[in-house]
Amino acid sequence: MSPLNVGIVGTGIFATDTHLPTFSKIPDIKPVACYNRTKAKAETFATKASIPQEQVYDSLESIFEAKDVDFIDALLPVQFNLDAVKLAVKNKKPIALEKPIAANMEQARSIVNLSRETDLPIAILENWSYRKSIDILKKEIIPKIGEVVSFTYKSTGPWNDNNKYLATSWRQKPEHIGGFLSDGGVHQLALLTDVLGPVESVSGLTKQLRKESGTDDVLFSTFKLASGVIGTFTYGSSFGATEKSTSFIIYGLEGSLTYDFSPHLAKPTITYQTGAGSASASEPIVVEVDEANTFVAEFENFVSAVKSGNKGDVHVKPENAFHHLAIVAAALESSAKGGDNVKVETI
Ligand SMILES: NC(=O)c1ccc[n+]([C@@H]2O[C@H](COP(=O)([O-])OP(=O)(O)OC[C@H]3O[C@@H](n4cnc5c(N)ncnc54)[C@H](OP(=O)(O)O)[C@@H]3O)[C@@H](O)[C@H]2O)c1
């Protein structure tokens, strides 16, 4: 079968630095068209992607109407995701959208409703759901540590003035709730909920540490999951000098595990111990994970859904991404209420 023709909308940093190299690794995808608000940037992108200059479109509407475009890859400031989905449905184009699903819960709900009324595959590119570690944790390690009772998830890092994403104006004055907390937080929450299941309620406190973040940029919180499991979730990269680290500790009645995928590690590790207590504790066992290229994996998944024409084949659907943004929304609401426990909105 010939490759699927993709039209890229929003040819900014991530389209250029990550999606384009990803497409070059997938024979089933061929970039054929692009659009960007500032056209010169789309022209530069087209040259890099070997897209003919006449396939650089002048409006968002017109690229969605293009007959030779099989699906759209949208990398817009997320307040425009709903507009893009409306155009996708109107023009019957499958669409992959960058995360978070939308700028707020109202828009996220509209996207979920539109996705339910159409047969088109619609994917949210939260990316971390494609980590191999998720299956290893769920199928191989968690069964060894008995009934899961709680967790501690922590992803923290130092403020970085040279963060290239910081320079984007839509992040400096975020219309999306939570600013960096939803921008990066939904990746973490996709991973957490893929492993342990949905979150029922949140008590949290947020704070703005850096004016450049445009809004609150650190979150300290407690979650109650639908399963009854309780835990803590700490997130932020606005601190003073500290080693960037991400660790997910899961406590069971017959052991515990630590999934550490901090950037300083050569490979992510899962370290676990079994035993009902200190007297019967095993030695720690360390499993190194050969992680997948999660960007390739998510586009391979989307392409397979487009080819099958079955929207059910999409791994991260709008409903999943709605939940992840809803957790951030609940944390923000909780913080505004001084840390009160807030139920996570359901679709
Ligand atoms: N999955 C991940 O790990 C990951 C990582 C980074 C980013 N992302 C996502 O990728 C998307 C793009 O992020 P980025 O970092 O690449 O940002 P970016 O460089 O600012 O790219 C956004 C693009 O959208 C265009 N745009 C801005 N306002 C617009 C408007 N009103 N109408 C139409 N187009 C508009 C911009 O065009 P101009 O050239 O005119 O400004 C720009 O080229 C975001 O959704 C972000 O959340 C995902």
UniProtKB/TrEMBL annotation:
InterPro entries: Gfo/Idh/MocA-like_OxRdtase_C, Gfo/Idh/MocA-like_OxRdtase_N, NAD(P)-bd_dom_sf
Domain Gfo/Idh/MocA-like oxidoreductase N-terminal: 4-120
A biological process term (GO) from this entry: NADPH regeneration
A Pfam family per the record: GFO_IDH_MocA_C
Location of the Gfo/Idh/MocA-like oxidoreductase C-terminal domain: 144-343
Gene3D superfamilies: Dihydrodipicolinate Reductase, domain 2, NAD(P)-binding Rossmann-like Domain
Molecular function GO terms recorded: nucleotide binding; oxidoreductase activity
GO cellular component, one term: cytoplasm
Annotated protein name in UniProt: NAD(P)-binding protein
Organism listed in the record: [Candida] railenensis
